[in-house]
UniProtKB/TrEMBL annotation:
InterPro entries: DUF3786 (IPR024264)
Organism: Acetobacterium fimetarium
Domain of life the protein comes from: Bacteria
Protein name per its UniProtKB record: DUF3786 domain-containing protein
DUF3786 domain: residues covered: 32-206
Amino acid sequence: MEINLRDEAAIEEKRKDKIPYEHYKSLLKDNDPQEISKLSTCPYDEAAKTFLVTVMGAPYQVAYPQGDVTDSDGQDFDNYKLKTMILRYLINAKGVPATGQTIAYRDVSGGNVYFACFEGRCLKRFAFTFNYDVEGLKKAMASIDAQPLTTGDLSWRFEVINNMFMTVILWLGDDEFPPEAQILFDANFPSAFSAEDMAVMGDIFIPILKELSKK
């Protein structure tokens, strides 16, 4: 019975995640594809009518004007949070180049409102996911060509999606103190993503890193 309840919960979560995806699919057609490509830096294939979007080193295709997001082989998948992020980026990108300067989540407009969500879904989740899998984290970061930094016990800067970079910092825990993390964003991040988007970014990049850590 417990397994059935978990299955039902997972199905319900997928259903809820699919609603915003379908919404943003319907909005893509209202934007000019060449302008989208220019502002997002995502190449647009006029013949195939598709954008090529790269997330954590992996390519995805987005059909225009339908808005369907598929993998590099054109196959569908059911990660609707990732699909929604991709569509929101294409629709909202303003063409602001990466600056190399970082900002904290609280520096973002609305960051104080959503900080509790950001802390739980990003900071604590990252810290406790990788505190006991340092080698896996190193492997995952190497696979996406992340730039190692010297802050904290471990830290990297990496491209989440075309032209949008994040910095993650991990302080390892021990018998006395729990692990801690900090996540910083390139200063151009708010030009494409709202504080609410950024608060759930952990739902995107942490599962990807976890999967890459196993390879």
